[in-house]
Amino acid sequence: MYPRVLVDENLIEKLLPAERRIVIRENNDTIIHFSDPIINETGANRDHVHALMSEWQVAMNHHSDDKVKLKYLWLLDYYYWTISTNPNWDANAFRVFHSGMTRGFAELK
User: Fold this and answer.
1) What b-and-e string marks burial along 9-32, b requiring 16 or more CB atoms within 10 Å of the CB?
2) Residue among 40, 38, 37, 29 nearest 4 (CA)
3) How many helices (DSSP H) and strands (DSSP E) are in the chain?
4) Are the C-beta atoms of residues 83 and 94 closer than 8 Å to each other?
5) What is the pTM assigned to this prediction?
6) Rounded distance between C-alpha atoms, residue 107 and residue 109, angstroms
7) What distance in Å separates the CA atoms of residue 53 and residue 55, rounded to the nearest whole number?
8) Exposed/middle/buried for 55, CB within 10 Å: 0-12, 13-18, 19+?
């Protein structure tokens, strides 16, 4: 239902340490961590990311299909989680995009 790519658990054991950086957990699922290339690690593109998330929020609020709204909501929560876990970003400016739902995102250990 959400815009994510699931990774088979059997594959995780075979990943090299560098490859493990591109997967995260969402509760019991393992998914591709695709926001990293878009959300600059240093926070240098925060205006671009804020504008992008604003566009998604507007699209979500104007869409009539509840399934599509849920996809936008998941995407906003996922991006917010990514930003909030990066010490180089001030997540306060992005809090408006967080739904308040507990999604269970976590880095792979």
Assistant:
1) eeeeeeeeeeeeeebbbbeeebbe
2) 29
3) 4, 3
4) yes
5) 0.91
6) 6
7) 5
8) exposed
Q: What distance in Å separates the CA atoms of residue 4 and residue 86, rounded to the nearest whole number?
A: 20
Parallel, antiparallel or unpaired: strands 23-26 and 105-107? antiparallel
Q: Which two tokens stand for residue 17?
A: 């340490």
d(CA 63, CA 41): 31
pLDDT tens digit at each of 109 positions of the chain: 678 999 999 999 899 988 888 999 999 999 999 887 788 888 889 999 999 999 999 999 999 999 999 999 999 999 999 999 999 999 999 999 999 999 999 998 7
Q: How far apart are CA 33 and CA 37, in angstroms?
A: 9
Q: Which of 37, 35, 32 is nearest to 15 (CA)?
A: 32
